[in-house]
Design goal:
The complex is a heterodimer of chains A (346) and B (262).
Chain A: E1 2-11, E2 14-23, E3 28-32, H1 39-47, E4 54-59, E5 62-63, E6 74-77, H2 89-94, H3 104-117, H4 133-146, E7 151-155, H5 163-178, E8 182-187, H6 190-196, E9 199-204, E10 207-213, H7 214-219, H8 224-230, E11 234-241, E12 245-248, E13 252-255, E14 264-269, E15 275-277, E16 287-298, E17 302-308, E18 312-318, H9 319-325, E19 332-337, E20 342-345
Helix pairs in contact in A: 3-4
Chain B: H1 6-31, H2 35-43, H3 45-78, H4 84-96, H5 99-110, H6 115-122, H7 131-155, H8 159-167, H9 172-201, H10 204-209, H11 216-227, H12 229-261
Helix pairs in contact in B: 2-12, 3-7, 3-9, 4-7, 5-7, 7-9, 8-9, 9-12, 11-12
Classes of the chains: A alpha+beta (346), B mainly alpha (262).
């Protein structure tokens, strides 16, 4: 649907090199990278606000590299929302419709439809000066959606929101995506990638160093940078029950601290917080499982031990521990971790 | 420095002297003019005609030149290239050159010997001694106020808002009229007021281009030259009062607009 082919650009000291991305219709694609690596520049290139030095951009097989910005049907929502301060909420949402020859009733229907979807109906006649970050973000999204873009580019959409607002906005983004809008979302936050995306690309020093299905990228990082940047080794989709239990793949049940009473979500267990031992240890950890070591992967400062307990768990241990406890491939071991070591991402 | 109690008093004293320097001659002039003199001056048709002419020409000149000055300001605020500083310098040139010299330059530009003068003559117009000539002289010396204020206004409009508008399907010209211009309007309005006010007060350049019809600053000079201070003073007072009324009125309107927008 959206395809970037060998996009390169040099802006002062900063450079993007041969960026290739392929988004299918309906994808929620997250581009993950540290601040200042050029994620926003890439979005602006796709939207047509910056010209690339070389490479091509295709939308539905049409080369749009040199197409006018206003004709591209690619919408971008900036990190600072860029809501027009001299227009009220309704006028902001109406802005893309102003140039179009639509009957007034149809325009109003569209405004109301997207104001409802983004939950800003009650703000329509308000000015934008005193709106919160979350409200501004919703207005910016509603305004973009009335222009019916085929692909939506989001620049760190959750970065400036507090934790409470993030949850609601994530649900909104999921809903927009479910309605058929293909989304390319750039962020530095791996949690957002896990929570929202079906595909992820990791960008570093102007290049995409790994891309693929979210699960693959997180579980099989291509190199140390991706492993360290993504920062997590174990993440699973879980069904929660009322007694604070999470069922993973209908295979294993673990004890979690599910204070939000979620029914379904993603969970992360940091490999560094899992204790590996040769026999069951008596501790405050509520999750204790027996398993078999499937693989030991050496890294620069530590080792990753993949333990099968019905599902594969990646445990990070030091060289010293590996030698001391003589862990080997196919040896029987116990893993234990506290319920508080499990992070739930709604 | 702030702990030194003498410093603020010294500052107040020095600042007060400067304020006094501005206000004292004006107050002196007002006090030296009797109500009867003022009343008679307001009935003098030559004075009233010249005030109307000055107001009308300065106002129309400001509006006419804004059509080109505002786009130029936008261009200067958005485009980055090596000659930008040179253009900014050219814009400020009328502020630093003597206004009589500016008048000579304008006269050379529009006199019957020049290409423009000949073109105007062919349609029966002579800019010299004509309100259009007065307007050109006023514009020459006052346009930097508008261009600089508008450029500052446009520079304060975040480029991202314009990019967003383009991305939402607006053409560049629509972006200018619906985003850039309204957001820079406060500065532009301030620039328009300043240009208008500066045009009203211009003497040096205008007197060379058009002694007649007489704008008020030229009339004041003529009354002074022909009859002395006593006869020039009431005209000056009336004109200053008119200028102040317009200046305050326009400033108030601009402020009201600002608070309505907020």
């Amino acid at each position: 649907m959206l395809k970037l082919k060998d996009i390169s650009v040099k802006l002062g000291d900063f450079e993007l090199k041969e960026i290739n991305l392929d988004l299918d219709k309906g994808d929620y694609y997250v581009l993950l990278g540290k601040s200042g690596v050029g994620k926003t520049v890439l979005l602006e290139i796709i939207a047509g606000l910056i010209k690339p030095n070389s490479g091509q951009i295709f939308l539905n097989s049409e080369d749009i590299t040199h197409k006018k910005i206003q004709k591209r049907k690619i919408g971008i929502v900036f990190q600072d929302f860029s809501v027009f301060p001299h227009l009220n909420v309704k006028q902001n949402i109406e802005y893309p419709l102003k140039g179009k020859k639509l009957p007034k009733s149809e325009k109003n229907d569209l405004i109301n439809k997207y104001a409802q979807l983004t939950k800003v109906s009650h703000l329509l006649n308000r000015g934008t000066q005193n709106l919160s970050g979350g409200e501004l973000q919703r207005v910016a999204l509603a305004r973009m959606l009335v222009s019916k873009p085929e692909c939506l580019l989001l620049d760190e959409p959750l970065a400036s929101l507090d934790v409470q607002l993030k949850g609601g906005l994530r649900n909104l983004l999921r809903e927009i995506n479910k309605n058929g809008v293909t989304i390319l979302h750039v962020t530095h936050d791996y949690e957002e990638a896990i929570a929202l995306s079906n595909k992820v690309a990791v960008i570093h020093e102007g290049r995409i160093i790994q891309k693929g299905l979210t699960k693959e990228v997180f579980q099989k990082p291509a190199n140390d940078f991706v492993a360290n940047f993504t920062g997590i080794k174990n993440f699973f989709i879980a069904d929660f029950t009322v007694d604070n239990t999470a069922k993973i793949n209908d295979i294993i049940e673990i004890h979690v601290s599910n204070s939000d009473q979620l029914k379904k979500g993603k969970i992360i267990i940091r490999g560094e917080e899992i204790i590996l031992s040769n026999k069951k240890v008596d501790s405050s950890a509520t999750n204790n499982f027996e398993g078999i070591i499937m693989q030991i992967i050496p890294y620069l400062n530590n080792h990753e031990v993949i333990v099968n307990i019905g599902i594969d768990l990646i445990v990070v241990i030091s060289e010293e521990s590996l030698l001391k406890f003589k862990f080997e491939k196919y040896s029987q071991v116990w893993v234990s971790f506290k319920s508080t070591a499990i992070k739930i991402i709604p | 420095m702030l702990n030194n109690r003498n410093t603020p008093i010294l500052f107040i004293f020095l600042g007060g002297l400067i304020l006094l320097f501005i206000v004292a001659p004006l107050i002196g002039m007002f006090l030296a003019t009797t109500p009867l003199q003022l009343f008679e001056t307001t009935k003098d048709t030559e004075v009233i005609d010249s005030i109307w002419l000055t107001l009308r020409v300065s106002f129309l000149t400001t509006l006419f030149f804004a059509i080109g000055a505002i786009p130029l300001s936008y261009f200067l605020s958005r485009v980055n290239y090596k000659f930008k500083n040179i253009i900014n310098g050219i814009v400020d040139l009328p502020v630093v050159i003597p206004h009589s010299a500016a008048g000579i330059a304008i006269l050379g530009f529009i006199s019957r010997d020049s290409v423009i003068g000949q073109m105007a003559s062919s349609v029966g117009l002579n800019f010299v001694g004509h309100p259009i000539g007065i307007g050109l002289a006023m514009a020459f010396v006052s346009i930097p106020f508008l261009i600089n204020a508008a450029r500052d206004g446009f520079e304060n409009v975040p480029v991202k808002l314009e990019k967003t508008a383009l991305n939402l399907g607006a053409s560049p010209i629509r972006v200018f009229f619906t985003i850039s211009l309204p957001l820079a309007w406060k500065n532009i309005l301030s620039g328009l007021i300043m240009m208008f006010a500066r045009g009203l007060s211009e003497f040096g350049a205008v007197v060379i281009v058009a002694y007649h019809p007489m704008i008020t600053p030229v009339l004041i000079f003529e009354r002074f030259g022909s009859f002395g201070l006593k006869y020039a003073r009431p005209v000056s007072v009336v004109f200053i009062l008119v200028c102040l009324v317009f200046f305050v009125l326009l400033r108030t309107l601009a402020k009201e607009k600002k608070s309505t927008n907020a």
